[in-house]
Fold this sequence. Notes:
heterodimer, A: mainly beta, Jelly Rolls, Immunoglobulin-like, 3 domains, seven-stranded antiparallel β-sheet, six-stranded antiparallel β-sheet, B: alpha+beta, 1 helix, 3 strands
Amino acid sequence: MAQSISQEAIGATGLPGATAASRHAGATVSGAPTTGTFAVGDFIVDQSGAMYVCTVAGTPGTWQLSGVSVNENIAGKNFVINGGMDIWQRGTSFALTGYNVYTADRWSCGNGSGITISQVSSGLTGFQYAMRAQRNSGVGAVTSINLFNMFETKNSIPLAGQTISLSFWARAGANFSASGNALAAQLETGTGTDQNAWNGYYTGSAFPINVTPTLTTSWQRFSYTATLASTTTQVGVFFYYVPTGTAGANDYFDITGVQLEIAPQATPFSRAGGSIGGELALCQRYYWQINANGVTAGTNEVIGTGFNYTSTTVYIIPNRWPVTMRTAPSITAASGNISLFNNGSNYNVTSISALYNISPNTAIFQFSSTGLSVGQGTICWAFNPIYFNAEL
Amino acid sequence: MTYTIPTDVLTGLPSTETICRTNEDGTQTYIPTDPANSDYQAYLASQENN
């Protein structure tokens, strides 16, 4: 039986100052009404969440879009940086040999050998990539395979006392060996400052979310809600599984779309940075590299320019880091040539001699060579990556 | 891994701002003496254990 809902008039006898009548004229599937007769002030809400108000009476009259459905793709909604597994500055496949190994940006993995963490195409609408955590075929070790995304304290404090929702997409490989196909998902909180969970539980550790959803070989979205203690200063999102038996060819799980938001229920996924550029910038607060992924190894990328302090010593001042880093970074040059170009000649050096004034924004590189023209300017290229690390 | 304190070329004295760590693969990591840097924290922990 068709349901009949009459228009409900709202009179002008409400709050002081509300002097005109209006009617909630029902809903449309999408957009303003195209049929029917309406008066000024009538309003409808369509099924996408947009609201329209009739500003000129008629059939159907003139309608003004006055409220739009919420844009869920908002920078800062998601506290999990790189939850969409978009950024892989260090590479796209990692054979683990220990723990606290950063793979996709902001994702620290472990715990042992015979484990491969890799980027895979997700095949999931709205997500280009997923992270695959796999026990290699034939491996008998059953140490847990862990993925950690640890927030710094400055990004954890806004979550204190809030009702939050953790959501993610996950699926299992055909030989996923966890008992009961269970993936452990945890939200750990603490009261310390910028601690790394690989060094032990956070100070004041608590697990407001500690669940074991059952995976299948199809993508599923899981979501969980909790309220965090008002004393929270550390938050981390952890996933792991404990394999059993000897690994088959597809003993893995895939995960993407990890989101932690201040909300009583999960909303559609949004990158923490709101866009690919924003996400990369957030990641580079913790790590970046010269001659990075995407630039072919063996080609060169400029480090910076400087001058020859002596005939054997060059100081190079790079441009400022892409973003201000969390702290002054540790700096490592991969083995291989660094080239200095001075007075028409190339001078190859194999390593950095020293670094000075390392700050969250820049540093001074020192290189040693011979036969340099004192006081002249020099350009410096890296032929292999130089890594800048300010992770927790 | 081993740690050394490089000489500051400008002063000729041991650097007070950088620690040099030689890694297992032979590469060197320059670590700022910043208490918030996790590699510096690991260096301090290693000194406490020695």
